[in-house]
């Protein structure tokens, strides 16, 4: 196969990966706390003296959008949304993870947990405890939890030191392959949930563009295959 064929194949592979990312974004356009994901293409060029250079593209860099999602008022005591680029931190069997999904509730032991039962961590990375008899819970903009004027704890607000170290593990759960720092430039809203930041219309438009680009690539590969077959046939005949 010639250079053009290899380049087109690598492009087709990247377009397939991008299509999966777009489809996942659209499927989660109504998921609380979901962050839209994008794919960045990179180019690799192989060049040797006296030989034709080979250029191939790879879609292997995922980019997470930090754009603010729409806020929905729920009035729930343990529903929280973040204004800013911070994340809540939760404890999972695989370690600490970050999330923007703030639909929490106390479990039977009084620990504040996610809908999946994962414990929410405070500013010191310890589980947030809410006494069953605490009464009316109020949460300040800095994440501090209090009941009847008594401080109970503080929701931790964190973010990765380097944004590119954020790795999606689940729809709304992220691992950080790097350092995590506490942040104070974001605000917690009680009784609100942040919706997905996916722009469904633009994602559908992008899906159509990717599909057309893939079809063009397939057409080129078919034409190239026919050209090579005809060249081989003519060579055999001669």
Ordered list of secondary-structure elements with their pairings:
Layout: H1 3-27, E1 37-46, E2 54-64, E3 71-73, E4 80-83, E5 88-92, E6 95-99, E7 105-106, E8 112-113, E9 119-120, E10 137-139, E11 144-147, E12 150-154, E13 158-160, E14 166-168, E15 173-176, E16 180-182, E17 187-190, E18 192-194, H2 200-237
Antiparallel strand pairs: 1-2, 3-18, 4-17, 5-6, 5-9, 6-15, 7-8, 10-11, 11-12, 13-16, 14-15
What this model shows, in words?
This protein is α+β, with helices and mostly antiparallel strands. The longest helix is centred in the C-terminal third of the chain and has 38 residues. The radius of gyration is 25 Å and the shape is elongated. It starts with a helix and ends with a helix. The model has no long low-confidence stretch (mean pLDDT 87).
Helix/strand-derived category reads alpha+beta
What's the number of helices?
2
Instruction: Give the biggest sheet.
Output: 5 strands, antiparallel
- Helix % is 25-40%
Outline, from the CA principal axes?
elongated
Strand content: 25-35%
Distance between the termini: 22 Å
Strand order of the largest sheet: 9-5-6-15-14
Q: Uncertain runs with pLDDT below 50, 5 residues or more?
A: none
Q: Rg to the nearest angstrom?
A: 25 Å
What is the helix/strand order? HEEEEEEEEEEEEEEEEEEH
- Number of folding domains? 2
How many runs of DSSP E, i.e. beta strands? 18
- Mean pLDDT figure: 87
């Amino acid at each position: 196969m010639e250079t053009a064929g290899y380049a087109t194949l690598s492009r087709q592979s990247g377009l397939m990966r991008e299509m999966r990312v777009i489809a996942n974004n659209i499927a989660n356009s109504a998921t609380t706390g979901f962050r839209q994901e994008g794919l960045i293409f990179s180019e690799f060029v192989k060049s040797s003296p006296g030989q034709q250079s080979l250029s191939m593209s790879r879609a292997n860099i995922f980019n997470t959008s930090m754009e603010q999602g729409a806020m929905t008022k729920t009035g729930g005591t343990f529903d929280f949304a973040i204004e800013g680029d911070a994340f809540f931190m939760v404890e999972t069997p695989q370690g600490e993870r970050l999330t923007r999904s703030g639909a929490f509730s106390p479990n039977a032991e009084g620990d504040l947990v996610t809908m999946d039962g994962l414990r929410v961590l405070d500013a010191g990375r310890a589980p947030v405890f809410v006494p069953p008899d605490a009464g009316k819970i109020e949460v300040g903009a800095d994440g501090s939890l209090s009941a009847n004027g008594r401080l109970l704890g503080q929701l931790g607000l964190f973010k990765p030191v380097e944004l590119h170290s954020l790795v999606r593990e689940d729809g709304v759960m992220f691992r950080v392959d790097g350092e995590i720092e506490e942040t104070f430039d974001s605000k917690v809203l009680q009784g609100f949930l942040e919706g997905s930041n996916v722009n469904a219309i633009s994602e559908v438009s992008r899906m159509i563009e990717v599909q057309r680009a893939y079809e063009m690539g397939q057409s080129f590969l078919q034409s190239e295959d026919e050209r090579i077959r005809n060249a081989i046939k003519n060579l055999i005949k001669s």
